[in-house]
Design a protein that fits this description.
With about 120 residues, the chain is an all-beta fold. The protein is about 0% helix and about 55% strand. The strands form three sheets. Strands 2, 4, 5, 6, 9, 12 and 13 form a seven-stranded mixed β-sheet that branches. The protein has a four-stranded antiparallel β-sheet with strand order 1-3-8-7, with no helix packed on it. The termini are far apart.
C-alpha cells in the first residue's frame, strides 16, 4: 500500500527556517520524482518544488526560488524541503506528492498524497 508521511512543520517567525521531510513506502513510485505542494486557507493547492529520483535536478515555483531547496536520501526513501527566509505568505499546509508530472513548464500533481504538515510563519 502506498504511503507518504510528512513531518517537520511548525510555527516560525519571519526570516526563520524549517525542514520538512517526506518518507515513502509501499510502491515503486519511491524510485521516482517526488514533489511538494501547499495550500493556504481559501486558496487552491499550488506547486512548490520537485526533485528527480537521482536528486541532481530540482524545480521550484518562482515564489520560493532562492529560499527553498529539495534534497533526498533514497536509502531512506525520504525527500526533504529546506525552507529558509520564510515569509508570512508561506503559511500553508504542505503536502508531499508522487508522482508529479511536468508538461510545458507546468507541474501537475500525481495520485499519491501525504497527510500534510502545517507551516505557520508569523510576522
Amino acid at each position: 500500500q502506498v504511503h507518504l508521511v510528512e513531518s517537520g512543520g511548525g510555527l516560525v517567525q519571519a526570516g526563520g527556517s524549517l525542514r520538512l521531510s517526506c518518507a515513502a513506502s509501499g510502491g515503486p513510485f519511491t524510485r521516482s520524482v517526488r514533489g511538494w505542494f501547499r495550500q493556504a486557507p481559501g486558496k487552491e493547492r499550488e506547486f512548490v518544488a520537485a526533485i528527480t529520483y537521482t536528486g541532481d535536478t530540482s524545480y521550484y515555483a518562482d515564489s520560493v526560488k532562492g529560499r527553498f531547496s529539495c534534497s533526498r536520501d533514497n536509502a531512506k526513501s525520504t525527500v526533504y524541503l529546506q525552507m529558509n527566509n520564510l515569509k508570512p505568505e508561506d503559511t500553508a499546509v504542505y503536502y508531499c506528492n508522487a508522482v508529479p508530472i511536468r508538461s510545458g513548464g507546468i507541474w501537475t500533481s500525481g495520485d499519491y498524497w501525504g497527510q500534510g504538515t502545517q507551516v505557520t510563519v508569523s510576522s
